[in-house]
């Protein structure tokens, strides 16, 4: 909901129409904006004694009524010539779409707003910003400790831009919050901090925002960090880009933290990517995101996420309860082995993949890389959905544990049954399933309680075998001429069987035709590590 317009006669409100702005989409309204800005600067007052705060206090709301305002001069909304640190400025429209600012500088390029370490605690609300040239940028903010705390509320950003927010300096430029904002069109970077920025740049929060651009990076940080995305949608519908670039191999503590929760992702072509991350620590978390709506628009092999270790530890990376498409790549270098990595996928569905091996790329970033530096990637309660293999493919594993310098893994126990919750029998004699890559079967227990059925059939048999041309029987329970199925069985087979080929990973639990009754109390338990 748009904020109410300031009341007539409010001494702290400046109405653009009262300064001669036409708002008709044709006239150049630059001077009215500059006059409003000059008034806001002049009305900033010093803190009264005994306050110890040396900052000035702002006292102005610049109100822009409904209309379309053309601005042909750069820095007409905030200007770099103002250098007095001032707390408080409100730039208020009548509503996104109702109040539209067309930035069309006579010479393409430059910024509509340029904060030279002066304004802090700024609210910009209920406006649409539009640019007609890819060299134009919305805001440049330079800070050595002043510029910070910007709230963007219910704003829309349309047209073509170079940068929406370009943050520079050595300190602050922090606490940027966006509430129900929308980006459409194209840009090079939405929020950008280059390597000359500062790790003092922190706390960027987005609430129910939608970045729906033909191209452009949403967040590109080479310094600074601590980012939170809640809800909304991220869409590339044109030539793409990377939604999140979290770069730089040297950061101070407290900056390398990223959370994206409850967000829809649309990669509508092969050039769109979710994340590229080279952070040497910290934490990156995706919680309950869904990228499935665009999975038919690009091949399953296209990379959607890239994480790199530059001879350092990766951040703690977690995807939790997510629906993912494309492949994820983890790259390591020669000395990456000297640090432990921590990567977890939990409760995730991989919509284009039937197997871990088609989803995950773990690659050497140089020709001399020690394989012990490859991260162990932990999959917990995950599942695949795509692919052509009709078998049940198990994802629960610690991928890469056997080659890492320290490869944590654990024993897992898998219960195998028919669709009716019972072991195979003569009418449904076989269950096929696939263990994860690198699995080692360490034991199989076949159990059938006595008197669970009444069948007096003898010569019954159950077995677990591989699916290769000359199958290996890993475990077997069978009757003889004296033992009826009703007598039950409890067979525990210890093993050390590496599933080092795809055929050895594809296992079959089967019964013979003498098994004519079934029991839900029966069990086939397969223990494996990997």
UniProtKB/TrEMBL annotation:
Q: Does the keyword DNA repair apply?
A: no
**Residue ranges of region Disordered?**
1-26
Q: Which Pfam families match?
A: Pect-lyase_RHGA_epim (PF12708)
Keyword annotations from UniProtKB, A to Z: Hydrolase
Q: Which domain of life is it from?
A: Bacteria
Q: Which residues form the Rhamnogalacturonase A/B/Epimerase-like pectate lyase domain?
A: 14-191
What transmembrane ranges does the database entry give? none
Q: Which Gene3D superfamilies match?
A: Single-stranded right-handed beta-helix, Pectin lyase-like
| GO MF terms, alphabetically ordered | hydrolase activity
Q: Which InterPro entries match?
A: Pectin_lyas_fold, Pectin_lyase_fold/virulence, RHGA/B-epi-like_pectate_lyase
* Protein name as catalogued: Glycosyl hydrolase family 28-related protein
The organism named in the record is Cohnella cellulosilytica
